[in-house]
Every structure is written in C-alpha cells, then in structure tokens.
Write the structure tokens for this entry.
Amino acid sequence: MKRLTSIFLGLMLILSFTSQVMADETQLTVSPEKVEVGLRFQGTTLNISGIVPDDAGVYIKVISPNDAILDLSKKGKVSLFWMNVENVSVTKVPKLYQILSSRPLGDLTVDQKKVLGIDQDFSTVYQTAEVTKHTDSGSIRLEKFEAKDFVSSMISIFKKGGLYSLNESAVKVKDDRFETSLELPANIPQEECDVTVYFIKDGKIIGTCSKTFNVETVGIVKWLNNMAIYEGPFYGFMSVMIALVVGSVIAFLFIFIDNRKKARLYAKACS
C-alpha cells in the first residue's frame, strides 16, 4: 500500500511539474518564431517578452545546438617566416550564444552560473568543446587545458561576428511583465535555436520557461545550399563556369575601355 501511495504521489508530482512548465511556456512570447534567410538578409530583431513571477530577476539564454565546426590555424615563426604551425578543428559548440538579464550576473551564485550556463566567460562552451589537432601523422584530440586557447580564440571570433554576447540590464521589467530585444546577425546559424528564461529571487530559481525559433534559408539561398549539399559535383561545375563567365566579361570590359582610350588618343594626335 505504501508503495502504491509513493508511486501515485510521484506521478502527481510529475504531472504537476509538467503542467507548471506548460503554463510557463504560454507566458513566454518569442517573435518572430521563424527567421527567413534570403539573398538580402542582413540580420533581424528577435523580441522576447513574458510575465515575471513574484518580482524576480530575469535571466535569458539564447543558444543554438552544439553542432558548430570551426577550423583554426595558429601562426608561428619558422626560421625567417611566419606561417601556420598548428591546425585544429573546434567542434561540439553552439554558434549562437546570447545572454540577457534584468539584473547583474554578479547576483547569481557560482553554482547557479555553472548550472544555468550563464556567465561572463561562457564557461559552458569550454566544457563541451572538443578540439582536434591535425598533423601529418593523423588527428589528435587535445586535453581541456591544451584546447583552452583555441576555444578562447573561437569565442573571440564569434563575439566579433555578433554571435556571442552578454547584455546585462538589457531586459526591461515593468509591473509584472518583462521584455527585451536581441539583434540577430546575418551569419546566424540556420537551425532551431532555444530561448530559455530563468526567474531568480533571493538566490533561488523560482521558475523557468523556454521556447524555440527556427532559422531557415529561403529562395535562391536555399536552392544553392541544397545544391551544394546534395549535388556537389554539379554545384562545383556551375561555380567554375560562373567564375569563367564573370572573368571573361571583366576582361572584355577592360579591353574595350583600353581600346576606346587608344582611339581617343589617336584621334587627338591626328587632329
């Protein structure tokens, strides 16, 4: 009997938690829910809003899946020349990682920052990243302490590209609602991204809610992407032909302009 009672209470707890999560999700609004990347796409604004429970601090994490791949090269001096001395690939990291909050991150404990993946240094990325060094004899997986500099370089590159950022006090709270906006760069990854909101009061997490938004290519950009993936040989042939045509047109224009100049100079000399 006690066992049945325990199972029943456990199920009730799970159902109660699920209901609470669903209720929280209905309070969160993410707009637009679909970002279309076309030929003239130069970025867009993502608007996030919802209800704040019990005057809590609002901390938002916008992140893409851990599937980015970035090739990096380390330069060094070999004899009298500077050249690439190490080539690595950084994998299992998100290409998009944005943090926004209504209060300073200093209000969070160290453990909360670690659990939520919200801190100034993007320390979660260092934990999940895998760095592989490419050598003539093969590929070698680097240890965490060896990979740190490469991961740091990757984060710096993504920061410069507007993909990684930290914006404290960017979330505005009025009465029982919060709202903020996030500028998504043109090079945002084309996949499903997560928006997770944490509500923290008196050092405790009192609620959380999340939603996703999709980033997908449309029009000629989608056609070219699909061709590059599924029809690689034809895509390569087409790229070469376009380059040849463009190069021939430019060469013809230069020859035409040069002949016109020569004709004018000849006409002036004759006159």
Q: What stands out?
A: The chain has two domains: 29-217, 231-270. Residues 161 and 185 are 7 Å apart (CA to CA). Residues 232-270 form the longest helix (39 residues). Helices lie at 2-27, 110-116, 123-128, 144-160, 219-230, 232-270.
